[in-house]
Design goal:
The structure is a homodimer. Chain A is α/β, with parallel strands linked by helices. Helix content of chain A is 46%, strand content 13%.
């Protein structure tokens, strides 16, 4: 809120003086010694912005939001690496999501039915794979992605182009409430900032900045999502795109991105395989932990020889695993025939979960083998 | 037709003895000296296949077909480079097409409406760009590609998995007649060979073998077109694929190919830009020649100052070119407003032709500049 102080200088001063507070406590000569021009040094030391800051504090408290400085351990680690990380992030919701492995999903505000469907499906599958879906809560693809992530029981991060206490577009009021409860809303814009159009391109660098990569679902050739993809590439983030019919205007952008080197995504795993080995290991470990925890919770009153009687999808995963072999593929049909009392869709869900956990590999012809882990 | 004589040995013997005739004139000891085993040497010298060969000659004459040996100057130059070029090609139609720049187009026999549409559109545009579309005259994508190529006034090559005097599938009788007249039918299988299923994978290597590259339009993950793409890659041919919705089973194959490195094709130019510079130059020269020839034919009774009154699309190309500048982009709207008496679709067609000829470049926002050629 200090006049004349830009994002990059602010972060540099915090680096020099260690904390934001120390920057404001510094004298004009100390600031000038740190390379700040006399005008800006006066602006910082004047304390003119303090009144506004007090108002901000009140608004933060009212909205149940917090401000996280670049020196805060909760500040997203990947966001620090971009050219111009915001010195302060306003956050409302589950702040711990900031250091999860996140994937940005962006696309047009006017998707086709195809775009909405695949955005939802991929957001759900990526959430199941342990990734946190990040988007901008705009109409269209963003909304579909957040919704599906929440439905899959995941946290999701919405990066706003306005204050985290604002709702834009207004039709997403309910979704915003749900994200603030089960997910996280963040913004670098102060509380009460309206959704100025110029804020959105600025906001987009945060979506890619906190993410391992950005997935573009639908968009025209010169769309906002194409810009986000460009930013992501400049930030050294992986760019993913969902192809579509060349007769569809809305698939022109993603198809062009693929032509330019973006990774083509047919299913969730096309994203996961491109992640760094350590990130893939983290996801697999998360997934295994989840399976074990659930299995233990259910199996408490049962001994392990009775697991085939276990109830629910977690028990099913374990049962399915028992029917698989590390040396010979077993077909889905065989599993359906031999797992009495378990529906095909439960078996498919279990196989999916086991594949995510790195315990099972799918082979051609809908057959599966167990992966030997020692 | 010689028992025990395979494709590769046949071609090697022709290389050694210079002509197919010389191979049959050779003695057993000469053949054995050339590395042929005693059994095969006897089979070659026995002349047992000669009766069949006479029947073949008759059938060739009846069908108006010719046999082209690997030593014939008309034999496709690129086909000689593959691992196992056929020693003899049977051909019916415009044999001169064999040494045109050709592009293979393959896809499923059961396409969606999308697949049929884009196969037709791309075949037409690639034909207009001066490429000869080659396919297998199967149901579906192949048929759509041949039809569109013929409608665009181009020659098209159909590679049969049966004799060139056979029709398969029978519903394509009329199309086959048209191809034999305006295009070319070829096969390595002797006259009267039925369409045995095992012939088709063998045939596919010819489609890719005579082509600069192969474009896959629709197909499942383990489809015949995926096999053709694999063959093409092994033959060092460029592999192209048209993306499609990930929810469409028929786009799974092409999308997977793109993931594996095939070039994504949104429009004809995505094929042309990947060709070798000398092939691109040949296409551009062809196209310029075609334009000049047509312009001259029309302009005969007019002097060049009157070209804006010229009639027909060729005249339009010249008029459009006069309205373009090498230094400042001109919009399509400007052209439509200023070229009285010329319909927008004629102007678009002219711009398209000029772009193909390398005389015009399209810039973002439907604007165009003239390319300076000195």
């Amino acid at each position: 809120m200090t006049a004349g102080l830009g994002t990059r200088t602010a972060v540099q001063l915090i680096e020099i003086f260690q904390t934001p507070e120390a920057v404001f406590r510094a004298s004009r000569s100390e600031l000038e010694a740190a390379g700040v021009g006399p005008g800006l040094a006066q602006s910082i030391t004047s304390g003119c912005a303090f009144e506004d800051a007090v108002t901000q504090q009140q608004k933060l408290a009212e909205a149940g939001a917090v401000a996280i400085s670049v020196k805060d351990p909760r500040y997203p680690i990947r966001l620090k690496d971009i050219f111009d990380p915001p010195p302060l992030l306003f956050a409302r919701g589950r702040v711990e999501l900031l250091n999860e492995l996140t994937i940005g999903m962006v696309g047009t505000r006017r998707p086709t039915a195809y775009g909405t469907t695949v955005a939802g499906r991929l957001a759900k599958d990526l959430t199941c794979a342990g990734l946190t879906v990040t988007s901008g809560m705009a109409r269209g693809i963003d909304t579909a992605a957040h919704r599906a992530a929440l439905e899959a029981g995941g946290g999701t991060i919405a990066v706003f182009g306005c204050g985290v206490d604002q709702i834009y577009p207004s039709e997403n009021r309910k979704l915003a409430e749900q994200i603030a409860r089960d997910g996280l809303i963040i913004s670098e814009f102060p509380m009460a900032t309206p959704p100025y159009p110029q804020n959105f391109p600025i906001r987009n660098r945060i979506i890619s900045g906190i993410s391992l990569g950005v997935l573009v679902v639908e968009g025209g050739q010169y769309s906002g999502s194409a810009i986000t993809a460009k930013l992501a590439a400049e930030q050294n983030r992986e760019v993913f795109a969902v192809p579509g019919n060349i007769t569809s205007k809305m698939s022109w952008g993603p198809n062009l991105l693929i032509k330019q080197g973006a990774k083509l995504v047919q299913e969730w795993n096309d994203v996961v395989v491109e992640l760094k080995p350590e990130d893939r290991r983290t996801l697999a470990a998360q997934c295994r932990n989840r399976l074990n925890l659930k299995d233990n919770a259910i199996g408490e009153s049962k001994d392990s020889s009775q697991t085939s009687l276990a109830y629910g999808p977690e028990g099913t995963s374990r049962t399915v695993l028992q029917h698989l072999k590390p040396d010979a593929p077993v077909t889905l049909d065989y599993l359906v025939e031999n797992l009495n009392g378990t529906s095909p869709s439960e078996i498919i869900a279990a196989l999916f979960e086991l594949e995510l956990a790195g315990l099972v590999r799918q082979l051609p012809g809908k057959s599966f083998i167990k992966i030997w882990i020692d």
